[in-house]
Design brief:
Elements: H1 5-12, E1 25-28, H2 37-51, H3 58-77, H4 83-98, H5 104-116, H6 125-132, E2 137-142, H7 146-154, E3 164-167, H8 168-171, H9 178-188, E4 196-200, H10 203-213, E5 216-220, E6 235-237, H11 243-247
Parallel strand pairs: 1-2, 1-4, 2-3, 4-5, 5-6
Length: about 250
């Protein structure tokens, strides 16, 4: 489903019989939805490589890392690797690929420390979250590492708008497992699935996760990527500002 006229048509039927808002709870993904994780990655990788004496070349070092990192996070979503293994395995693969002689476990600690310092919100994120918070309850569910997400997200300028921030490593469940959605609902004491909307950029973890749990979903697709997964969200938006057309 696209935004625009299709979204407005859907909006006409997304109210209950009393004219109240259908969605009372919004579940947000964090990275690449509210937070610019690509910018964070670049910041952290550059700082970490410089710390171990590497002459950083963005075009080479960052592009090679992105390929390996995206691949291993996909393995995590598919259940092929554990989160605790991902922390260091990605750097073992990375160093093997580009020929760096350094302990990959030690580098993982350096990198994650730098990653935790990189909290960059998308330009429209703070305004839209503040506006939506006036009419809805909100929570964040993020697949990530506690050491990184705690500082970046719980310490961010928007953290106070959310009733809870659930980090996959802390609860030992990752999206798209529906159990992490149920846990979040238990924390905020809300069980009416028909009034919950999941918003995120990942078709696999966010949208399929919401579908697995039995709630409506909104795919944040700012770069108009082709949907080749066969996973159908309730809504698709290119800008976070379009959420107002759905919610408000």
């Amino acid at each position: 489903m696209s935004s625009g006229s299709g979204l407005k048509l859907t909006w006409k039927i997304k109210k209950d019989n009393g004219g109240n808002m259908k969605y009372k709870v919004l579940l947000f993904d964090a990275d690449d939805t509210l937070f610019d994780f690509k910018k964070t990655e670049e910041f952290a990788l550059e700082n970490a490589l410089i710390k171990i004496g590497i002459d950083y070349n963005k075009d080479y070092h960052l592009s090679e890392y992105k390929v390996i990192n995206s691949g291993i996070w996909k393995e995590l979503e598919e259940g092929k690797i554990l989160l605790k293994e991902l922390k260091t395995e990605r750097f073992r693969r990375y160093f093997n690929k580009i020929g760096i002689q350094f302990n990959h476990e030690a580098f993982a600690d350096i990198y994650m420390s730098s990653l935790g310092d990189g909290s960059f919100l998308f330009d429209e994120a703070e305004n839209i979250v503040e506006e939506l918070s006036r009419n809805t309850r909100m929570a964040i569910i993020t697949n990530g590492l506690s050491k990184v997400q705690d500082k970046r997200i719980r310490g961010s300028a928007i953290s106070h708008y959310f009733e809870t921030i659930v980090v996959s490593e802390e609860v030992e469940i990752i999206k798209p497992n529906p159990e992490i959605f149920q846990l979040t609902m238990d924390i905020i004491k809300h069980q009416d699935k028909s009034s919950v909307l999941m918003i995120g950029d990942s078709l696999i973890s966010d949208i399929q996760g919401g579908i697995n749990y039995g709630i409506d979903t909104c795919w944040y697709n700012p770069h108009s990527k082709e949907n080749t997964k066969g996973i159908l969200p309730t809504y698709e938006i290119k800008s976070l500002d379009e959420l107002k057309d759905i919610i408000l």
